[in-house]
Amino acid sequence: MLRGVGLHLFLFAAGRRLLAAERYLSAELYLQAASRLAPTRADIWLALASCLQCRHCPHAAIDILQKVLELAPDMAEARLRLAHSAAEAEMWPLAIERFEQLLAESPGSPQLHYHLAGSYAGDGQLEKAVQHFRAALAVEEVASTHNGLGLALSELAMQEESIAHFRRAAELSDKPAYLSNLLFTLCYDPALSPEALYQAHIKQAARFPQAQARKWRQSFDPERPLRIGYVSPDLRFHPVAFFIEPVMREHDASRYQIHAYSTQMHRHSETTLRLKASCADWREFDDAEDEALEAAILADRIDILIDLAGHTGNNSLPLLAKRLAPVQVSWLGYLNTTGLAAMDYRLTDATACPTAFAQPLHSEQLIHMPHSQWCYQAPADSPPVAPAPCLSQPGTTFGALHNPAKVGPAVIALWAGLLRAVPDARLLIAARGFSRIAAETRARFAALGVAEERIVIRDRQTFADYLSMHGEIDINLDVFPYTGGTTTCHSLWMGVPVLTLACPSVMGRGGASALHCLALDDWIAASEEDYIAIGRRMAAAPARLAALRQDLRERMAHSPLMQAEPFTRALEARLREMWRQRCLEASVRS
After folding, report:
1. How far is the C-alpha of 19 from the C-alpha of 29, rounded, in Å?
2. Cβ pair 159, 408 in contact under 8 A
3. Do 564 and 249 meet the contact criterion of CB atoms below 8 Å apart?
4. Which of 38, 58, 137, 164 is the most exposed place for a label (fewest CB within 10 A)?
5. Residue range 487-536, pLDDT digits in tens
6. Closest by alpha carbon to 574, among 20, 359, 582?
7. Which residues pair with 226 in a beta bridge?
8. Using CA of residue 23, residue 29, residue 33, residue 36, what is the dihedral sign?
9. Who contacts 36 (Cβ-Cβ below 8 Å, separation ≥6)?
10. What is the rounded CA–CA span in Å between residue 484 and residue 498?
11. Cα–Cα distance between 186 and 167 in angstroms, integer?
12. Nearest-10 Cα torsion for 413, 415, 420, 422
């Protein structure tokens, strides 16, 4: 055995070799031992911090890097790694401070502008993020910067410009995340025809990895118990969880073995723990495109793999494009086609996606659930339904609690038309980030003849505040062309009816689907003129609004939207039919 002063060098060298071989846990053990023997060696501590970063342990890495900088304050690599670890830990003030210091020393660095922009965006300072993304592009044009700028502009409701940057990112790179961001944002463009949007999905999906020939190891017995896999970055406190949790809980474990693949392992919540408890097997991964995720799904011999993300953020479509299961299904997170040849089905309903209209706009075969594509679980800590505000104050309060990215010029123009038609009404707009564009939003309404004081804009702080805010709203206004889903269900549960426009797009009828389940078809507009007429008529009947408000929660609780057991049985029946069809195909091929 090595003894004395040389042992720490041996451990250090071994740790670095293991780090280079990506054997991070073993590397960490050797480097920790070396650091204990040589606590004043900054280079050993730096290697340990690097190992922790590779293991996605940013908080631990920050502690080590601060120790490094105590020993060697000018060590450039440690200063840069500290900034990156702070960003990964979402410690935005620290990340901004550190990147600002580094940029002051290297003002022409496009990389530092880019990372500083990302930190400002994470901190909600989107105008500064845009400034630094533009500064980075002025020095060097790369796809990642166009993509980052597109994301920031989208949050600022500047969709036209954001789409231009996503398009440029997609021109410069085949990275699937950039292609998905482009497709997702195109769904918000009301000027794009459904056919053009479909063709965009087919064009960009063709750039994803191609399906691989697989020799499946499972038995193609049509009636045996099935292994069902759910893959998602959102198995946590997230809109998707309000719809997947009741289903996972109600699955018949004797016939359907549930495997869940969570691809954001550092975003746990109490919801995550409940979901985990409802599964036969639960796997967590750092990266939605991790090869280890692909290997795990194949090793688990999943029969039907259900993707819950589509082209939303941190999706696993690049892996599903290669085909990881004999049957692959898209559901919940993305209300449009994925465009992927390897995606066999999309679950929806006849109101959201009428076959004659929607099937030609999908690469997947549409499968309709009996009543709704959704099965909603209400928040456990919901406050009671509050009295209608119109009974205690003059005029009607319309509400809009949507992501700013969904509130484009066409939506504002429609809402302004409604406010002109109901001159004593006000509009409460509230969502994370809306206060950043409050002045611009009010100015848009003013230009359309609506006084600025009639527009109330707030940032949404907590989920509890969001639910309570429904007590200040008489009627919630849906958006288009990508209508609300979770926001609509939350609103109905809180006793607030929703006025929706059933658009001629595959994402534009989600609100109609939810309302139809509650027999609230008189709140579904067929045109913009109809939208204004319905809003004016409902606002003129405060007693009717108040009565409906007191009835909505019970009506919703007894509607198909919240009947988890029959919904799950219907889902299982459709999954079984998909499997039977696949078994038939396998028998023909053999």
Report:
1. 11
2. yes
3. yes
4. 164
5. 999 999 999 999 999 998 999 999 999 999 999 999 999 999 999 999 99
6. 582
7. 256
8. positive
9. none
10. 10
11. 10
12. 170
502 contacts 484 by C-beta, under 8 angstroms: no
> pLDDT tens digits, residue range 73-91?
999 999 999 999 999 999 9
Say if strands 475-477 and 498-501 run parallel, antiparallel, or are unpaired.
parallel
Secondary structure string (H, E, C) spanning 59-74: HHHHHHHHHHHHHCCC
HEC-encoded secondary structure of 96-132: HHHHHHHHHHCCCCHHHHHHHHHHHHHCCCHHHHHHH
Distance CA 496, CA 176 (A): 39
Query: Cα 71 vs. chain centroid, distance in angstroms?
Result: 42
- Containing 428, the helix (H) or strand (E) segment is strand 426-430
Residue 118 has pLDDT above 70, yes or no: yes
Q: Write 583-589 long-range contacts (CB < 8 A, 24+).
A: 583/220, 583/221, 583/222, 584/222, 586/220, 586/326, 587/220
- The C-alpha atoms of residue 576 and residue 255 are separated, in whole angstroms, by 10
Is residue 200 over pLDDT 80?
yes
Cite the beta strand spans of 202-318 per DSSP E.
226-232, 256-262, 281-284, 304-307
| Omega before residue 481 within 30° of 0, cis | yes
Spatial distance between the Cα atoms of 279 and 230, rounded to a whole number of angstroms: 10
CA distance 78 to 49: 9
Q: What is the DSSP letter of 400?
A: E
**Cα first-last separation, the chain:** 61
- By the 8 A CB rule, do 314 and 334 touch? no
The sign one gets for the Cα dihedral 145, 191, 438, 488 is negative
Beta bridge partners of 400: 429
SS3 (DSSP) at 23: coil
DSSP structural state of residue 90: T
Q: For the residues of 156-188, what is the DSSP string, one character each?
A: TT-HHHHHHHHHHHHHH---HHHHHHHHHHHTT
Residue 373: enclosing H or E segment and its boundaries?
Answer: none
pLDDT in tens, 291-313: 999 999 999 999 999 999 999 99
Polymer length in residues for the chain: 590
Tell me how far apart the alpha carbons of residues 95 and 116 are, in angstroms, rounded to a whole number: 8
459-497 in b/e form (b: 16+ CB < 10 A) is eeeeeeebbebbbbbbbbbbbbbbbbbbbbbbbbbbbbb
Question: Rounded CA gap, 578 and 580, in Å?
Answer: 6
Q: Where is 349: in which H helix or E strand?
A: strand 345-349
DSSP designation for 286 = S
State mean pLDDT over 241-257.
97
| Token pair in block for residue 204 | 């960009």
3-state helix, strand, coil in the chain (%, to 5): 55, 10, 35
Instruction: Give the predicted TM-score (pTM) of the model.
Output: 0.92
Within 10 angstroms of residue 585's Cβ, the number of other Cβ atoms is: 12
Q: What is the distance between the alpha carbons of residues 489 and 578, in angstroms, rounded to a whole number?
A: 29
User: How far does Cα 385 stand from its chain's mean position?
Assistant: 28
Peptide bond connecting 222 to the previous residue in cis, omega within 30 degrees of 0? no
φ, ψ (nearest 5 deg) of residue 502: -80, 100
What pLDDT band is residue 3 in, cutting at 50, 70 and 90? Answer: low
Q: Which residues pair with 503 in a beta bridge?
A: none
